[in-house]
Amino acid sequence: MAENAFEAAVGAVVLAGAIAFAAYVGQRMDGPSNGYALSASFAKADGLTVGGEVRVSGVKVGAISDIRLDPATYRAEVRMNLRGDLRLPEDSSAKIASDGLLGGAYVSIEPGGDAQIIPAGGAIGHTQGSISILDLVGRAIYGAGGGG
Questions:
Q1: In a domain, 148, yes or no
Q2: pLDDT one-digit tens code per residue, 117-144
Q3: CA-CA-CA-CA dihedral for 9, 12, 17, 19, to nearest 10
Q4: 24 and 41 in a common domain
Q5: How confident is the model over 83-130, as pLDDT tens digits?
Q6: pLDDT tens profile 18-66
Q7: What is the pTM of this model?
Q8: Is residue 47 domain-shared with residue 113, that is, in the same domain?
Q9: Is residue 9 a contact partner of residue 43, using CB atoms and an 8 Å limit?
Q10: Neighbours of 92 (CB within 10 A)
């Protein structure tokens, strides 16, 4: 009987650890819950995933909370949740960047110099979508072959 009680106690400890780990991962993936919500529209959003990083000057400041296709414009609408203390000027720009050849994609925001601030829930107007490495290689090979 004592052996069953010991196994039950070990099982309860393992279950509690799993629940704590799942809660931690869920919190990290969602990003700051009291943050500054923004959106941006991209022509191509290749490589972005929900939970992916949003960076300013190479520093992680938030996470991607949603990616959807706008059926009217056929553009990728990316919603982001940034740190609550961060406010971006109206003329800021966003682009999809990559961590090297095999790295993941993230949203890189370049702050502008405007005195007006994008309100919470607002959108970044100036964007640049992802660049396909295969397209670049194809252009380089085609261009090197004489361009005929």
A1: no
A2: 999 999 999 998 777 666 777 778 877 6
A3: -170
A4: no
A5: 988 889 999 999 999 887 667 889 999 999 999 999 999 999 999 877
A6: 888 877 766 655 444 568 899 999 998 888 999 999 999 999 999 999 9
A7: 0.67
A8: yes
A9: no
A10: 21
pLDDT at residue number 31: 46
Per residue, the 3-state secondary structure of the chain, as one string, reads CHHHHHHHHHHHHHHHHHHHHHHHHHHHHHCCCCCEEEEEEECCCCCCCCCCEEEECCEEEEEEEEEEEECCCCEEEEEEEECCCCCCECCCEEEEEECCCCCCEEEEEECCCCCCECCCCCEECEEECCCCHHHHHHHHHHHHCCCC
Residue 26 lies in a domain: yes
Q: Would 69 be classed as within a structural domain?
A: yes
Q: Is residue 147 part of a domain?
A: no
Both 40 and 26 in a single domain? Answer: no
User: Which domain covers residue 134, as residue numbers?
Assistant: 35-140
Are 122 and 109 part of one and the same domain?
A: yes
